[in-house]
Amino acid sequence: MATGPYLDTPELFAAGSSPACQFGVPSDRKLSWVYSTVDEYYPTTPPTELCESDEELCEAASSSVHLDREPLVAVLGVGYVGEHLVSNFARKYDVLGFDVSEARMRHLAETFPSDTRAKFTCRPKDLAHATHFLISVPTLLRPDQTIDSSFLRSAIENIATYARQGSVVVVESSVAVGMTRSLLGTLAKERGFFAGMSPERVDPGRTEPPAHAIPKIVSGLDDVVPGSLNAIIRLYSQVFDKVVPVSRPEVAEMMKFRPSVLVVGIGFKRGQSHLANSPGLDLARSLVLTEKVEVTWVDPLVKQEAVPQIKKLDETSEWNSESLRQRFNMIVVAFRQEELDFQVLEGMEAKGVRVEMWCD
User: Fold this and answer.
1) pTM over the 0.85 mark
2) Which residues pair with 264 in a beta bridge?
3) Percent of the chain at pLDDT above 90?
4) Where is coiled-coil annotated (predicted)?
């Protein structure tokens, strides 16, 4: 018998037992940091969850969504960003958090207050009850700097399977310009979904101002499905203090601002190139996985091939005051690596670049 707002049955907001779920990736798997292949660096997108008693996907509910009725907002991908979306939207609406990780869903069910309007599930079938869908899955960079949209495509496939005509679909994940249209445009037109994009604006560690007080940019594919923008504004205006509509998703995608950070010193310590127990590498990889900043590193003794997932700064041509000032919002010096002139960092903060020294 489940306790708390974790759904373990096909019936929404009901308690009971269910068949054991099987996932392509174990729910207790921890991300490992390795440096050889793309698939080892980023775990592949898990396949759609299957249950022992569900050999066939259930058909989506046949009835249409009526936007004048009380919404049920589904958040697909309940990591750092998704958790904040669930928390904020649950202030005004019933919310269903969906993620492929059963462990993650149970954890959130235990940590959210008992009187929350949020429920959590790892069963795609439960999405058939939703009227609005917010996609907040990771969109990571591959070593060749192209965007891995596999998580996003998987989320859209689930929506295509279970969402009803008249549903509202909003991409909150960070995407390249034009990606919302290319992935959602045809589906929205064929299925009658109101669709758009709203770039997430949650920063790790920031508590003030609260997320609902930060102006929220929204956009709609009105040229594909008229009324999309108004449907999205109607939902978001009840949650955020100020909603800022823009003309189309491409504008919203361009307005996603990601600060640029340079990590100086990626080896273990001064004069060494090996990466074991490197504080600089630990910092760089942690920043990458937040998806909040663009990360670059510099270390004359470490080659790009050693850390192919993160772009290396060319110290021979770009380690100078003017180049650093133009490219970066913040520079973190893990240690003073050999062959770098650290005088170029003098006066950098006066030019608007924050510099943190993790060493003497």
Assistant:
1) no
2) 298, 333
3) 42
4) none
The answer to whether the peptide bond before residue 5 is cis (omega within 30 degrees of 0) is no
Q: How many CB atoms lie within 10 A of CB 351?
A: 11
CA–CA dist 141, 139 (Å, integer): 7
The pLDDT assigned to 193 comes to 98
Instruction: Please state the rounded mean pLDDT for residues 293-321.
Output: 89
CATH number for 260-357: choose from 3.40.50.720, 3.40.50.1390, 2.40.30.10, 3.30.930.10. Answer: 3.40.50.720
Higher model confidence: residue 55 or residue 176? Answer: 176
When mean pLDDT is compared across 80-89, 140-149, 190-199, 278-287, the lowest value belongs to 140-149
Domain range 6-254, CATH class? alpha beta
Distance between CA 85 and CA 73 in Å, rounded?
Answer: 10
Would you state the pLDDT for residue 148?
A: 83
- The average confidence (pLDDT) of the chain is 80
**Can you give 268-320 as a three-state secondary structure string?**
CCCCCCCCCCCHHHHHHHHHHHHCCCEEEEECCCCCHHHCCCCEECCHHHHCC
Instruction: Return the pLDDT at 256.
Output: 60
The neighbouring-strand residues paired with 171 are: 135, 197
- What is the spatial distance between Cα 176 and Cα 146, in angstroms, rounded to a whole number? 9
Ranges in the chain annotated CATH 3.40.50.720 = 6-254, 260-357
Alpha carbon distance 110, 207 (integer Å): 22
